[in-house]
Design goal:
Chain B: One of its GO terms (cellular component) is plasma membrane. The complex is a heterodimer of chains A (516) and B (446). Chain A is 32% helix and 27% strand. Chain A has 516 residues and is an alpha/beta fold. In chain B, 73% of the residues lie in helices and 1% in strands. A two-stranded antiparallel sheet of chain B has the order 1-2. In chain B, helix 4 packs antiparallel against helix 14, helix 5 runs antiparallel to helix 6 and helix 12 crosses helix 14. The longest helix of chain B has 28 residues.
């Protein structure tokens, strides 16, 4: 198929800054008409920010650089104006309303109305036609909640087609789909290309990209690294991975000589179901162990099941438990709820400190003691004096920047909030700390301090499981790294043998499972 | 460091007095509402030519509103946990009729009748708590159902008629501290007042001592002195008024029950693990459960506790009215809920104090009482109460949203600019910042 080689979209030197962070720096992207263009990069590389600039979520004026779409310079004020121009973005979390029918969803916000009265007969006929175009054989009157995720994805595309889309942006379109649905969707995207609709696809699944994309732009640290032409050159997964991770590792990590003891925590054949969808296993037969004084990394892409694994270990706070055992200090233990997990010496620092980690209405001192009030209480009565002095100790030792521990945690910066969360869990005297993205969204200086804290905890003989999406971080401070892919542990690599390429390889495929 | 010095400055003086009434984190609304209460009392004192603060009237206010205030204590805990209870009036009425019937038909002695009433409240509370906590039905629905069920239950048991209670029982609703001693005033009331004032002095001294020991900054001595003199003065003055009323009257028993409950529940909510858990669940349920808090137990407890307090309120009301009737407790839930919100609780949960709710309840009580004294009709009283509730919460919601352009835009922006020097640095996300810039730019232009 001879592809038309004129660009439909050009983004030139896009720079987008947030206070203190340059999310995008001079990023350029050219998408040709009638092609599927993949954007690859690590988590946090700037892919979504770029798409938000393109779709008008960040309106013109909040970034610098220019966007040329179909030969004209455009400045989108909001999503509506980008949609009117023919750019439709389909997010990972689908924007459909479960209680409404397929037809109602397709025309939501674009109702087929005559003088304010919706013509449902016409709408239904049009919906049937759109469903046929996306290859979905389904009654347009069915409610969205009654059809599967794969079909919902197709409805989203039908909705986009109704808006006369010229450029479709798909953010991780197959993340929640099974093999068959994924294949159907990928075929459809390729088919749309033939009908003059270009697509931008963001995906972590490199095999899918290889399969459908015509060209690939790789973004790293907010910069365009390269654009690879699949048709022209020899592109394989290894080549893409090299582009994604090929950054030099600066000495951003404190020095440390690990002092590793015996295995004290072991998980065997851990299997967990999705909380709503019973047939979906989010963690499948995973086994791992942690030694005293060891920092164990858990590497995996978004949605791989790392957080789900961690939370389900932590008193079954995620999903429904299916099978598996936990052995701690040679004894099999059962942790049915969070308070049992805390009592057993586990701590889980969640990846979302504002939603899961802190009560933002609390002050620093109340937050720090909140996970083990018993420790500063006589009977049921909380001792305010001990609360204050304990909190004051942590404020000093972790250098939490606040004038006093009476200050509300909602007013602290991200790095200091994270220190409060760490203090809260250190206060519970855990043997094993599970840290889920502990440095997400905090600046470099604070990151260094957090690493120091983590290493100090390990030096005390505690075990640490560190979940991180930043490979350099794992390589920098972990002693051993497990890779997770689709709920399974696909690799157990000592850090001395690990490099970004090998990690990325076992993070992106189950088949290339590391054989020991 | 500049933030350090400015905030130490801030924590002295005015802010300290404010903190005393507003709990841990300074809560502007709670402090504002205490000011409003004083203004309302003084206003009506003038309008009624001194009738408002007369012994007889104060005793009246306590007798008439103690049961609403008791409900407000339970309600604030329910609301902090993020729920609501619409059934309290019906639960009170139901308990009232059960207790009245038990005494009339079975000749149950009144102390046992009170125990029975509490047990009925506990059972109802367990029922509603079960639906809220373990089935997961929103408390609004559960208690709306309870409102119907227990109102109907009252009328079923009482055959929609009034049932009188024996005179010994009326003591808890209409009794006073008995007279003793040689003085021409109620000795018991004055002793209580002096104990209260002494406790205020001791508490302040204790706080200062602890602060000194911990090496944390205490407020200046004059602040403590002003605080103690003001509070102790108010308590002693109130005690004097109650003690010097008509012969045979003094501080009402229902008031003593109320004060005891306020002290007990302030302690529970502020200083116990369970109390902390209520705030934790209301403030961020997910974070609380991930910290080991059993949120369902908290939900169950607050709902059960509310019904127990409602049954107590119901018995006090019946004791005062000397009979239990089919319309008892109508609309109480609304007064209790209004008291809590006027008193500084947040609609979304996590914020509120027992003391604040009592102050909010007193605002309602003195408004009601004052308007009645100056001869306003029930129609006007309702309109004014409604407006007060709306304005109290409206001011709070608005003050949390500062930075958006509004009719108060310029004023609020100026205030913000002045406050900016004092406030510690906030981390602002990229999307918020431009909006604020626009807002200030707009207000400068206009």
């Amino acid at each position: 198929m001879p592809s038309e080689q004129h660009p439909i979209l050009e983004m030139r030197s896009i720079t987008k800054e947030f206070p203190g962070v340059k999310a995008l720096s001079e990023v350029s992207l050219t998408v040709n008409a009638a092609e599927v263009h993949a954007i690859c990069g690590e988590n946090g590389a700037g892919k979504s920010t770029l798409m938000k600039v393109l779709s008008g979520v960040y309106p013109a004026g909040t970034y610098t650089g220019e966007i040329v779409f179909r030969g004209e310079k455009v400045e989108f004020k909001d999503i509506r104006s980008s949609e009117n121009a023919g750019i439709v973005i389909i997010h990972q979390e689908l924007a459909l309303i479960p209680e409404l029918s397929i037809t109602e969803n397709i025309f939501l916000g674009n109702e087929l109305a005559h003088r304010g009265v919706i013509d449902w007969v016409e709408a239904k006929a049009k919906a049937t036609e759109l469903l046929a175009r996306v290859g979905l054989d389904e009654d347009p009157d069915r409610q969205i909640k009654n059809i599967g995720v794969g079909k919902q994805q197709l409805v989203e595309i039908a909705k986009a087609l109704n808006k006369d889309v010229k450029l479709l942006i798909l953010d991780e379109p197959t993340a929640a789909l099974n093999e068959n649905d994924s294949q159907h969707l990928l075929d459809l995207i390729r088919g749309l290309k033939g009908k003059g609709i270009a697509s931008i696809m963001i995906s972590h699944k490199l095999n899918e990209i290889e399969q459908v994309a015509d060209s690939i732009t790789i973004i790293r640290d907010g910069k365009t690294i390269e654009t690879l032409d699949i048709a022209a050159g020899e592109i394989n997964e290894d080549r893409i991975i090299r582009g994604m991770v090929g950054r030099s590792l600066e000495s951003r990590f404190p020095d440390r000589t690990p002092n590793i003891g015996d295995v004290f925590f072991e998980v065997k054949d851990w299997t967990v179901q999705h909380p709503q969808v019973a047939e979906r296993l989010v963690v499948k037969g995973s086994s791992l162990y942690v030694r005293r004084g060891e920092i164990v990394g858990l590497a995996g892409l978004m949605g791989a099941g790392r957080t789900e694994l961690a939370m389900s270990l932590f008193g079954r706070s995620y999903g429904s438990f299916v099978s598996g055992t936990i052995v701690k200090d040679g004894e099999e233990i059962e942790l049915r709820d969070v308070s049992q997990a805390i009592d057993a010496g586990l701590a889980y620092v969640s990846e979302d400190r504002k939603v899961l980690g802190l009560n933002l209405l609390d002050d620093i001192k109340a937050s720090i003691v909140s996970a083990k009030l018993k420790k500063i209480s006589r009977g049921q009565v909380v001792d305010d004096m001990r609360e204050y002095s304990v909190a004051e100790e942590y404020r000093k030792s972790l250098r939490i920047k606040a004038p006093s521990v009476d200050m509300g945690v909602g007013k602290l910066s991200g790095g200091n909030q994270q220190k409060v969360v760490l203090a809260k869990w250190m206060f519970t005297d855990p043997d094993l700390l599970i840290l889920d993205e502990p440095t997400r969204g905090i600046d470099v200086g604070a990151k260094y301090e957090i690493y120091t804290i983590i290493q100090a905890l390990a030096a005390q003989g505690k075990g640490v499981i560190l979940i991180s999406s930043e490979l350099p971080e794992l390589l920098g401070i972990a002693d051993r790294i497990y890779t997770v892919f689709e709920g399974q542990i696909t690799g157990d690599i000592p850090v001395t043998d690990a490099n970004p390429e090998t990690l990325m390889k076992s993070m992106t495929s189950a088949r290339k499972r590391v054989q020991n | 460091m500049s933030t350090e010095t400015s905030s130490t400055k801030k924590s002295g003086g005015f802010a300290d007095i404010k903190k005393m009434f507003g709990g841990g984190q300074s809560n502007l609304r709670q402090f504002g509402i205490l000011g409003s209460l004083i203004v309302i009392i003084l206003l009506f004192q003038v309008l009624t030519n001194g009738l408002t603060l007369s012994p007889t009237n104060l005793i009246n206010v306590v007798n008439q509103y103690s049961y609403i205030l008791i409900l407000a204590i339970g309600m604030v805990m329910v609301i902090i946990a993020g729920h609501i209870d619409l059934s309290v009036g019906s639960v009170a009425a139901f308990t009232g009729i059960v207790v009245a019937k038990a005494m009339a038909d079975w000749n149950l002695p009144w102390p046992l009748a009170i125990v029975l009433g509490i047990a009925v409240g506990a059972a109802i509370g367990a029922w509603q708590g079960f639906w809220v906590a373990y089935i997961g039905v929103p408390a609004f629905i559960v208690t709306l159902a309870g409102m119907l069920i227990f109102r109907g239950g009252n009328q079923f048991i009482g055959q929609s008629t009034s049932v009188a209670v024996p005179s010994e029982f009326t003591y808890i609703g209409a009794g006073y501290i008995p007279d003793f001693g040689p003085f021409p005033f109620s000795t018991g009331t004055m002793i209580l007042g002096i104990l209260g004032a002494a406790w205020i002095v001791y508490n302040e001294w204790h706080i200062r001592r602890v602060q000194k020991k911990m090496g944390s900054t205490s407020s200046p001595v004059w602040v403590s002195v002003v605080k103690v003199v003001l509070l102790a003065g108010v308590i002693l003055a109130a005690a004097w008024l109650f003690a010097t009323g008509r012969v045979g009257t003094s501080f009402p028993i229902s008031g003593i029950i109320l004060v005891a409950l306020v002290i007990l529940y302030s302690f529970i909510t502020r200083s116990t693990i369970g109390g902390r858990h209520i705030y934790a669940v209301g403030g961020n349920r997910l974070a609380a459960t991930l910290s080991g808090v059993k949120d369902r137990r908290v939900d169950f407890f607050v709902m059960m506790n509310m019904s127990v307090l409602a049954s107590l309120a119901g018995m006090i009301y019946v004791a005062r009215a000397t009979a239990s009737g089919p319309q008892d407790g109508n609309g109480w839930e609304l007064d209790a809920i209004a008291s809590v919100f006027i008193g500084g609780a947040a609609v979304s949960g996590g914020i509120g104090t027992v003391i604040g709710s009592i102050v909010g309840g007193l605002v309602m009580a003195f408004l009601n009482n004052g308007l009645q004294l100056i001869g306003a009709g029930a129609d006007l009283v309702q309109i004014i109460k409604g407006l007060v509730l709306l304005i109290a919460v409206g001011v709070d919601v608005w003050s949390k949203r500062q930075g958006r352009p509004s009719i108060f835009g310029i004023w609020s922006q100026r205030r913000k600019a002045r406050a900016a020097a004092d406030e510690p640095v906030l981390e602002s996300s990229g999307t918020v910042l431009p909006t604020n810039d626009n807002a200030s730019a707009e207000s400068l232009r206009s």
